[in-house]
Amino acid sequence: MRRLVRTLNENASAFTLALLALFLLGGLLYSHHLGNTLRFLPDEREYLTLADNLATTGRYTLDGTTPTAYRPPGYVFFLALFRILGAPVWVLRLANVALFAATLWGLSIWLARDASPLAGLLAAGIAGVYVVLFFTAGTLYPQTLAACLLLWSLYGLSAPSARTGWGLFAGALFGWAVLSVPLLGVVLPVALLWGWRFRIPWSRLAAFTVTASLLLALWSARNYRVFGAFVFVSTNGGENFLVGNNENTTPNGGTTIDISRYREAASGLDEISRDRYYRSQAWGYIRRHPASALRLYTLKVLTYFHYRNDLVTTSEASALRDLVMLFTYAPLLLLAVWRIASARRFPLRPLDWLWGSIYLASAFATAFFFPRIRFRLPFDYFLIGFDAAFLARWLEIRLLSAPGEENAL
Question: In whole angstroms, what is the distance from residue 382 CA to residue 190 CA?
Fold first, then answer.
C-alpha cells in the first residue's frame, strides 16, 4: 500500500490525464449512443430552442419573435456557438463532457497547487466514481458549464500572485457562471469574505466583483430595454420560489408539486407580471404560515443532502439509479464529517474553509427555492475537493511519513 501511494503521488499528473482521457472517450461513446433525442422535457427542448433561435435570428426568443428572459442566457449562448456551426445534439452532449473533463482538470491542478498532487488525482478518481456528474454532462442542462466556470473562476481568484489580471479573469468567468445558473450568486459573498480573511489582494477582489457585476448589468440592461423592468438574469425565479413555497410543497417534491391553480390564474399575464405574481403568492404563503414555512425551509436544507429526488420525467427514475446515488454520495458526506471531526489533529486549511463554506451556503440558499440533485452538482465538486484533500493528507501521513512523524500534528 505504501508503494502504491508513493507511485500515485509521484505520477499523479500522468494518472490524472489518463483518467481525463478515459472520461472523454467514454463521453464520446455515451453521447453518440444517446444520439439527438431530448429526454428531459421541457427543459432541454427550451434551452435548445433558445440556442437555435439565437443562432439563426440573433434574437433571444422561444417562439421566434417574442423576446424572453425565462431561461438564464449563459448556457444558451454556449449552445448557440455550436449550433451556428451546425453541431447536432450529440455533439452538444460531447461538448458538455469536455466541460466535465475541464472541471476535473481544474480541480486536480488546484489541489496539486494548494494541497498535494495525490489530492488532485484522488479528486479526479472520486468524481469519476460519482457517476451523476458524468450522467448530467450527457444532458442539455447548464449545471456542467456553470460548474466549470465557477471552479476555474475561484481557481483564478485564489492564485498565489499579486496580478490584478487574475481578478478580471475570475470575475468574467464568475459572471458567466451566474448568467448560466443564478443560484451560484451565493458564492460571491462567501468568496469575498474568504478573500478578505486570507489576504487576497484587495485590487483583485475589486476587479473580480466589478467584472462579474458588469456582465450581469449588461444582461439586466438588455432585459430593461426589452421589458421596461429590472430582471435579474431570468424570469423563472418567481415560479421556482412558488414551487418551493406553497401549501402543496414537500421537502423533496420539487417540480412535481402541483401549482396548476396559480398557473391558471396567471395565464393571461405577460412574462414579467407572471413572475411577479408567482413571487407575491409565495411570499403571501410565507407570511400567512410562518411556522410551517420555517419548518419547511429547515427540511429543505436537510433534503439538500439527499441522494434522490422525485422526478417529473418518471421514465428516468429507477431504483438502481437511486442505489448508485446512495452508495456514491453518502461516502462523500461521511468523509466530510470525518474530516471536520478530525479538525483538531488536521487543522482546516484556507482551501478547506473556502470549499466547506461554499457547500454549506449553497444548502441554505437552495432551500429558499427547492432542493434538487441537479442544482447541487456544481457545488459537489467542492465537496469532492474537500474530501480528496483530507484523504490525501491522511494517506501521506500514515503511509509516506517517516516513523514518528505521523504524530507530528
Answer: 13
The tens digit of pLDDT for each residue in 307-358 reads 987 765 555 557 888 899 999 999 999 999 999 999 999 999 999 999 999 9
Q: Which of 147-156, 160-169, 396-405 has the highest mean pLDDT?
A: 147-156
In sequence order, what are the residues at sequence separation of 6 or more whose Cβ sits closer than 8 angstroms to the Cβ of residue 276?
A: 238
3-state secondary structure of 61: strand
What SS3 state is found at 67?
strand
pTM for the structure as a whole = 0.94
Phi, psi of 61 (to 5 degrees): -150, 150
The answer to whether 35 and 90 are in contact (CB under 8 A) is: yes
Mapped onto helix, strand or coil, the DSSP state of residue 391 is helix
**Distance of alpha carbon 359 from alpha carbon 370, whole angstroms:** 16
Asked if 333 and 305 count as a contact pair (C-beta separation under 8 A), the reply is: yes
| Identity at 319, one-letter amino acid code | A
Question: pLDDT by residue (tens digit) across 29-65?
Answer: 999 999 999 988 899 999 999 999 999 999 999 999 9
Closest CA to 158 of 143, 179, 174: 174
Question: Quick one: CA torsion of 394, 191, 221, 179, rounded to 10 degrees?
Answer: 10
Kindly report the number of other CB atoms within 10 A of residue 348's CB atom.
Answer: 14
CA distances from 162 to 35, 203, 204, 205 (A): 46, 9, 8, 11
Nearest Cα residue to 301 out of 377, 375, 365? 365
Using CA atoms, how far apart are residues 241 and 219, in angstroms rounded to an integer? 21
